[in-house]
Amino acid sequence: MNNNIKANNCACPSCGAPMRYAPKKKSLFCNNCQTCKNINSVSFTEKSPWSERGKLKKEDWAKETTSLKCPSCGANVVLNKLEYSKNCPYCNSNLVSNEQIIENMAPDAIIPFSLSNEEASVLYVKGLKKKWFLPNAFKKAPPVDNIKGIYIPTFGYDADTTSKYSGTLAEHHTHRDSKGNTRTTVTYKNIAGEHKSQQYDILVETSTKLNQLQFNKILPFNVSKSVNFEQGFIMGYTVEVFENTLEECKKIADSIMTENIKREILSKYHYDEVVRFNMHTEQRNVKFAHYLLPVYKCDYKYKNKNYTTLMNGQTGKVGGGYPKSGVKITFFVLMIIAIIGGIIALINILGD
């Protein structure tokens, strides 16, 4: 008997009820009759050359899904062919299939959720309790009732780079004379050279409701675990449609690559200050892929203020967006000031 279910056939073969992806079983599961069926899972290995970005196909994805725009908050989400309605994961408004249809590009690959909702709730609470400055009352009972799994559209980019650079670095030297007086001198060093770097899987989110800063706080994702996209993996989860174009996201990826390369170059030198740094980078073998990445999202209200905290659905890493105690932050700042003051006092005593 064939245990694989095709992407366009995610109804339970035994009872006809909708099946959903079960992360721990790594298969489709029917809550109604407990039937479990495998999904065709093939490791994703090859991105598309940048030169072929204009040849992307949308027909198959359009047949299997409808992309809808939430009339309340503007989020763009996907209904698969077996769904007639869904609640928006951001504002809980009902989405129906006669809403605005949005043109979309099919995903190349997906990292399936590795955590069930129950496991995500446990890890979410543990992750929050490790955060600094969490209010004590909130820390005792973090909210987990409204946690939702969402696949976030993301573009990943590769490039082989060659960078020519020049700049000036400074080192600060502190001297103390026999009387305990200190003075600081600065020496400067000019640098120049060529640096080759391979930039792989530079991920740029393109969600309608999240931003790159929120996304960065739940990185990294292990992209080597991605598989070719099959619709079965998204059953039971919400999928967002990408908002920004491939070209717009490439500009963000370029800026991330630039910062990565700059850090690689500067790591070869000893310095205290970058006085000047210029760099020109050329890219080769540029490739890209459209990923769907698993994210758990929890919305809640604390002291009449709304918060959204994200969690990596592959690793369980919890991001930002949580309440912070003003009292704890103030105490921490005062403690740091006291420690610095104590160090300065000790230096002066030893100097005398």
At a glance:
The protein is α+β, with helices and mostly antiparallel strands. It has helices spanning 59-64, 117-129, 136-140, 212-216, 246-266, 326-351; strands at 4-5, 20-22, 27-29, 36-39, 48-49, 65-69, 76-80, 85-87, 94-96, 109-110, 147-176, 182-205, 227-228, 238-240, 273-302, 305-312.
Structure description:
With 352 residues, this protein is α+β, with helices and mostly antiparallel strands. The chain is 22% helix and 37% strand. The protein has 6 helices and 16 strands. The strands form 3 sheets. Strands 5, 6, 7, 10, 11, 12, 13, 14, 15 and 16 form a 10-stranded mixed β-sheet that branches. The chain has a 4-stranded mixed β-sheet with strand order 1-4-3-2, with no helix packed on it. The chain has a two-stranded antiparallel sheet with strand order 8-9. A hairpin with a 2-residue loop joins strand 15 and strand 16. It starts with a strand and ends with a helix. The N terminus is likely disordered.
